[in-house]
Amino acid sequence: MIILGIIMLIIVLSAMCWLLFNLAVFALPLFAAVSVGLATTDTGAGPNGAIFLGLLAGIATLTAGQMVFTLVPSTLVRVAVAGLFAIPAAIAGYHATHGLAALAIPAEGWRQAFALFGAGAISLTALARLALPRGAGFRATPSDARLSGQ
Fold this sequence. Notes:
By secondary structure, the chain is mainly α. It has six helices and no strands. The chain has helices at 2-22, 27-42, 46-71, 75-104, 108-131, 142-147. The protein is globular. The N and C termini lie far apart (52 Å).
């Protein structure tokens, strides 16, 4: 029974880490969606209006960030947008890694070290996912397909 528990713990922790890495780029749009939803609720729009406007704000934030990051040639603007997406992802990664480390590591110093490492890894993952175009194998122009041999 103990072995089954250890195996299940490893599976669950692996699934949580996989979700954290896959959803890292959505930390800023989620923050925007929740903020707009709460602000809309405070104005008296009701739950339906808050959900609709929150979803709209989240989608607009993600779309605008990806468009600016991929279309604007200015390096300074791209770095600023990348920072806007990476900072909330780093904060979420820090707290998630610290919470997972608290399950297994008794020393606070080591928990902090793992949490800082996790924050860095999650923010770099968010940067990488933001920089990649949508869809695996996407070819923007026919010349890209010729260069890759397809």
